[in-house]
UniProtKB/TrEMBL annotation:
Keyword Metal-binding tagged: yes
Single GO biological process annotation from the record: proteolysis
Pfam family, one: RT_RNaseH
Sequence ranges assigned to domain Chromo in this UniProt record: 573-631
PANTHER family cross-referenced by the UniProt entry: INTEGRASE CATALYTIC DOMAIN-CONTAINING PROTEIN, PROTEIN CBG26694
Xref: CDD domains: CD_CSD (cd00024), RNase_HI_RT_Ty3 (cd09274)
Name this polypeptide is given: Gypsy retrotransposon integrase-like protein 1
Annotated organism of origin: Nothobranchius furzeri (Turquoise killifish)
PROSITE patterns for the chain: CHROMO_2, INTEGRASE
Lineage: Eukaryota, Metazoa, Chordata, Craniata, Vertebrata
Protein location: Nucleus
Coiled coil: none
Domain Integrase catalytic intervals: 273-440
Listed GO CC annotations: nucleus
Amino acid sequence: MAFAELKRRFSAAPILTQPDTSKQFIVEVDASESGVGAVLSQRASDNKVHPCAYFSCKLTPAERNYDIGNRELLAVKLALEEWRHWLEGAEQPFLVWTDHKNLEYVRTAKRLNPRQARWALFFDRFNFNLSFRPGSKNIKPDALSRQYQQEGEALESESTFIVPPNLVLGVSRWSLERRINAAVRDPTTIPSGCPPHCLFVPPGFRPAVLKWGHSSRLACHPGVTRTAFLVAQRFWWPTVSSDVRAFVSSCPVCASVKSPRTPPAGLLQPLPVPSRPWSHIAMDFITGLPNSKGKTVILTVVDRFSKMVHAIPLQRLPSAQQLAEVVVRHVFRLHGLPENITSDRGPQFVAAFWKEFCRLLGITVSLSSGFHPQTNGQVERFNQDLETTLRAMCLKNPQTWSSQLPWAEYSHNTLVNSTGFSPFQAAYGYQPPLFPHQERSASTSGPAAFVRRCRRTWTEYRSRLVRNQERFTSVANRRRSAAPEYKVGDRVWLSSADLPLKGGARKMRPRFIGPFPITKVINPVAVRLELPRALRVHPVFHVSKLKPEKLCPLQTPPAVPPAPRIVDGGPVYSVNKLLASRRVGRVVQYLVDWVGYGPADRQWVPERHILSRDLIDQFHREHPAETSVWEPDFVRGVML
């Protein structure tokens, strides 16, 4: 009976129906990793879907690399190409069934990749609707798409192993925990406060536990709270909280790479208020200006008493001798010799000529601490105001700033400031007249009255300066913290923000370098450090650029740099890595990172002093863009 029924079904009903252009077509598509399949169908009078044609195609190696969405869309494209003579211009919109739901939105997507954009132009020739059909019902095209798979291919491509088959998972034994358990054999020695889920740690194992909870790859140097949380999950001892805090605060890696989250150290130390005009002055330069009548630099000179200024345009940054000539011509001849000159550490102000020039005239030179422009804050503030004024006056034609500079200076000197006096009035005892009627109404008293008025003005003005300074100091100290009481011999970390460190990406450089010993405490907010010669910066720094080294007996002592070997009577140091190269004249130099030394000790070393040619070859393999010249007369050097 079964065979007769099977014979009847094969002979009684056609396998394929003849396409009828008056009826709606249905295109069923699917794609696998090896091919695509499609079925062209129509509904007959019995309302069942009958196949009209079958299609399958093996994917090329490039097409097999498509993601699943593009492979499913490729199946639609190939099916439409195959039956284009039936589908293009069909009387009724036809349906496309796919088991990939995202394709329902492909024709309305706003962003397509180049391949999809090309296919979209082809799809515009047809009038069809994409519809999702679950994979459990999309059996026919699925079977057609998989006929090109080799035996076992599907299992290999579709199976994803989280752990490679050749590895066996098992419970790992932690040597630290095993050693702690071995050390604590007598339960009566465990303090009563130990939680039941924690392991009591004897004193000898606490440094190892703290190092695991803070410095291991599992922890990655977190703060105090997170380190304590990680340690407390498994370990305990009575002083665990204080030990974690001390260990984390003394971690040299954290001290080197983490930026402080506290207010900058060092309360404001304002300079003393002078007692008369032009006895104490401050100087600085404004650079980066466009050429204006041959001038590109402004020398600004500020009287620290009256706040009166002189803005002197210059062709370029002057040498120390040229600066002395400019100051004599534009300042000293008008106001006499000052008692003190405050400036930054520019090359003109630290030159031997300038220091000797000031010494011969009896002038004290005060230089700001390293990378701390707030020391010379009055002139820095005026520079900001002057730049703003010139931008406003020369907005349409910046090259005319030198013509507007005298007016900017006059405006600053004649307008009142927070003291209620103008700088001109504070310096000369009267306000300059702006109009003729003011001149006629001015007092014509004698010299004695004029002197009394000047002294009265200076006394009142100085008292207001002192009050303002006290108020400004109080406001500034709200955003500062008291500096530690440093002593000679203390070791501190130095901020690297302004240091000329070379090698590596700036984002990956340490935030602090050191620690370095203090050799002199200049004042409560400035100290002198013992720095490596390679840094080539002035060793005096404001305390806001420092943070103290903290020591903890649980922390591993810092490594001592290895002593150099003595070869032929000279020291020989070992090279860790070459970081960069440069050419100075005809000599090629390499930036050397020494074994056992930090970033602050890196040096530029001539090629002939590096004895290992393998290091140079390795550097150029890693940095092919760098160029080097091999010197035939390579001689024995003093570095390895």
